[in-house]
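Obj.: predict assembly geometry.
Materials: sequence records (below).
Method: joint structure prediction, all chains together.
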Amino acid sequence: MISSESAGAIERHYGSVESRTNFGVVILASVGAALVGAGIILLIAHNWDDLSRAARTVIAFIPLLIAQALVVFTLMRRSESRPWREAVAIFDVAAVATAISLISQTYQIQGSFADFMRVWLLLSLPIVYLLRTTLGACVYLIGTIVWLFAHEIGIFVRSPDPMFFWVLFLLIVPYFLLRFLEDRGSRETAALAIMVTIALAFGLGFSTGFAKTDFGGVAFAGLMTAIYLCGIKFFPQTDDRLHIVALLGGIGIGVTAIVLSFESNWHMSREFFWGARSFHGNIAIALEFLFPIVAVCLAARDVFRRRVEFSLVAAVFPIVTAITWGIANLCETQAAQNVYGTNCSFAAAAIINCYALWLGIDILTRGIRSDSIARANFGLILIAALAISRFFDSELSFVTRGLGFIVVGAGFLVANILLFKKRSAAAA
Amino acid sequence: MKNIRLAIFILVALAQLSVPALMAWTRVRTLAEGRVWKFKTAPIDPEDAVRGRYVMLRLDAEDFTQSEQLKSIDSIYAILKEGPDGFAQVDHLSPSPVPADSSMKVEPGGWWQERQHIVLPFRYFWLTENSAPAAEAAYRENSRRGQQNAYVTVRIRNGDAALEQLYINNKPLVEYLRAQASEKK
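Observations (raw structure tokens):
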């Protein structure tokens, strides 16, 4: 007889082996499909010179028609096979790009890379839903980031309107929610969540540049805190470890705090606007406010319910940044014609420096308390990064800087010795 | 569920086919019915001419005199006129594509001492890998200061501008390259 516990363990073991094999097949099938697609393009390109425009036009559509026939076959006969779905999706998406590129080349159609990416993404998006391909969704999100860069580089205007990114981004959100509701604990959902997080960060970065306000720091503090809180709330873990999304958010909070600890980020210099801000500009500003508000609401909800499972110090980051922003704007001055600045940048940077130190100490003590070497060291890395930043940034004497480094280094050693001692005592 | 997916995919497949098909169809009509304009190529930086499988075009008409700097607007059109030498010149810039067979959408560039730079939508002349090196040499030789023997023909119809041919020494590029090759033999 096998006990229910052993049965569960066996099921978990074989289940994970099966999912790993399946994942391997998916990757191999996708790479195979991409190679076959590339091979077809090369074969076509071989005799390109001798073909008439009409012949080239017909040939440009052949890979797409084959891919579409395969999609129909997969939908009818192989709908439950993940390798088939993923591979055929990649083939179809590549075939769309091939057809557009070959037609563009044949008819000398110029167009910008950003325009090409936009059309390609919109034509590929339904395939993600129809073939339920998470790999495709990840590639789509990478494509939206590529579009942002292509759009920025391709246009002569400084900080061109990136707001179409949010349309592209919102179009993939329902797929992410479907995956999340189906199986939030799977590796696939985690991979997609990572890509969503990265895309959000890039999207917000370009949008703050376009909004031309000085609120970008608060917006980023809000985004990273919201990601951290969402990671803890929506991806709960049975053990004490953080889900990858919460971890990314936590690292994001640390990095943003270090970046904002530089005084140069608090000069609040911005250009004066002539005329009314465009509708898209207003949406960009609304987005800057959205993320800090979401983060504060998420944290407040749990605080009022007395169910705080996150670091309060990390959760207050957007509030601290917003207060700092307010202080920096208290003494606004006009530095030059059409350019505004502040005299309170030192005070603002000092507040963020104190906050970053507080955050580092909080993570360190939480790490020691929960016996997590990784977390404790992350807290120390944060403090060390802060120390290094001030080493380059401030006008402190060499003796003060040297003493500072010795203190931080000793902190590293003591914390790690304490943790290892605690562990070996527990093991004994 | 399977049938719904299939029905949606048929719509998606039609969209995927229609985008390149429409691109080709618009160009076929412009190339057949559009008004022909000749653009003289500008002297080029030799290192920049061919990158992989296209000739990077620089056109004379992309720089012209304009007393005022461009105001920032979303889209801008170049209204063309024919110069005394038969080559196209930019008459003026306009926010609307009128008249339809003499205007095309352009990208604004820099303005310096009453000279406005724009980028016409013909930056690349696509080639095959085999002909690229010879085309590079020919374009470079004929787009030097003092020896500007290269030009492109463009057809414009209802604001749609299609690059038709690159001419070197009054011969289409492929013909010119063939003649050069047979001369060498």
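Conclusions so far: DSSP finds three helices and 13 strands in chain B.
To do: check interface contacts against the pulldown list.
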